[in-house]
Design goal:
single chain, 389 residues, alpha/beta, 8-stranded mixed β-sheet, 6-stranded mixed β-sheet, 11 helices, 19 strands, 23% strand, binds flavin-adenine dinucleotide
């Protein structure tokens, strides 16, 4: 019994099936509308923290390739990424990161401007070089969830049942109750309710002090982050990789090397909105461009143009040409665990009921490996059937 039709819930459905479970999958909306359809679709190994986080991302990258064989409609492509340096200080960080022990696992290589253009000829702007990460990949967030559901529904037993427009309002050992009062039974219940820190998961998170703003948490816990994104009309050229700018070095833990301290200050508008440029070409040729980060709630309900101006100018400078008209703008919210050494949140809410959330900006990347871990950890597999009301 899986609650939540985002990427975490859907990957749990995929992995549950691998373990021989029949799956009933509840989603309160007609289809996923949360972070999983609002993201870049970056399967991003390059920036992950050394150790357990990198290991999880590498396992996930491997699983994504397998899942893409099972569900080709995800648009998975092992395109790699290029992080572009426009000043010597950024290049120094890249060189240092490429010397670290785990750089080989990330398939890092520092490239000259000509080599960057040879890998991705669409990058025709002025820059000093780039960091190629061959391990990175791309999926299509707007179609990945339905593609996975179609593959699940179309494959032989055990069965898969998708139940949209049903909100789980109560979870207990043995099943969940929807808004109409109907109990849906399952030996194991997995709650993947996303950045919704109230509702079904709320009382559990509050009682266990799992929220970052809980008294005594010392900031260690779950918090929410809001990001702004946009998508252009189709771009005439073809980008062979995803692209990041040097500001991304400031946000990803893989680049916490001594020379990071020598980066010049960010442009004020980028610093104010904690922006970095990430750029992915969609299969239809359009460009997904982002992002910003805000942590202080209540979040704005509207989007702000200043960071968009900055990100569009950066993208245009790296591509060395004007961009197509912006077609769509949106914001998305994810929840993330805070505190060193934590990658995501999993806890037993009741016997046989597991809550999995908080993967932060790595949720699309790590989802298959997180789901795999749920079915290989003792609390994940505590299945207890009881008599429901
Ligand atoms: C703008 C943006 C860009 C990002 N870019 C990337 C990226 O490129 N790569 C990457 O790895 N990660 C990225 N992330 C992070 C990633 O998108 C998230 O970590 C991930 O999507 C979280 O998945 P989820 O299934 O937990 O949440 P969601 O996608 O939010 O899904 C949760 C679902 O649960 C449903 N639900 C909640 N409560 C109930 C209930 N009681 N009953 C029934 N249904 C319920 C909701 O309706 C929702 O559909 C990005 C996030 C954002 C916002």
């Amino acid at each position: 019994m899986i609650v939540g039709g985002g990427i975490l819930g859907t990957m749990h459905a995929v992995m549950a099936r691998r373990h021989g479970f029949s799956v009933v999958h509840l989603e309160r909306e007609p289809a996923g509308r949360g972070a999983s359809v609002r993201n870049f679709g970056l399967v991003w190994v390059s920036g992950r923290r050394s150790g357990a986080e990198l290991a999880l991302a590498l396992r996930a990258r491997q699983l994504w390739a397998e899942v893409a064989d099972f569900a080709p409609g995800t648009g998975f492509r092992p395109a790699g990424s290029l992080t572009i340096a426009t000043c010597e200080a950024e290049l120094a960080v890249m060189r240092e990161a490429a010397e670290l022990e785990d750089a080989k696992q990330r398939e890092f290589e520092v490239l000259s401007p000509d080599d960057v253009r040879a890998v991705n000829p669409a990058l025709r702007g002025e820059f000093l070089g780039g960091l190629y990460c061959r391990a990175d990949a791309i999926v299509e967030p707007r179609v990945t969830l339905p593609a996975l559901r179609a593959a699940l529904a179309g494959s032989p037993a055990p069965s898969y049942e998708w139940l949209p427009r049903l909100e789980a309002v109560e979870a207990a050992a043995g099943g969940v109750r929807d808004q109409h009062g109907t109990w849906h039974r399952g030996d194991l219940v997995v709650l993947c309710t996303g950045a919704n820190l109230t509702g079904l998961a709320g009382p559990h998170l509050t009682e266990t002090g799992a929220l970052a703003n809980a008294p005594g948490s010392g900031g260690r816990g779950l918090r929410r982050v809001r990001l702004q994104m946009l998508q252009t009309r189709p771009f005439a050229g073809r980008l062979t990789t995803s692209v990041a700018d040097g500001d991304s070095l400031r946000y990803y833990p893989a680049f916490e090397v001594p020379s990071l301290a020598s980066l010049p200050p960010q442009a004020p508008v980028a610093a104010a909105s904690r922006a970095q440029l990430l750029l992915v070409q969609r299969l239809d040729g359009s460009l997904t461009i982002g992002d910003t980060h805000s942590y202080d709630e209540p979040f704005a309900f509207d989007v702000d143009e200043d960071p968009y101006d900055h990100l569009l100018a950066r993208a245009s400078a790296l591509l060395g040409t004007g961009l197509p008209r912006v077609q769509r703008r949106w914001a998305g919210v994810y929840s993330e665990v805070t505190g060193t050494g934590r990658i995501y949140h999993r806890s037993a809410v009741a016997p046989g009921v597991v809550l999995v959330t908080g993967p932060g900006g790595r949720g699309m990347t790590c989802s298959p490996a997180i789901a795999e871990e749920t079915f290989s950890t003792p609390e994940g597999l505590t299945t207890e059937g009881t008599d429901l009301p």
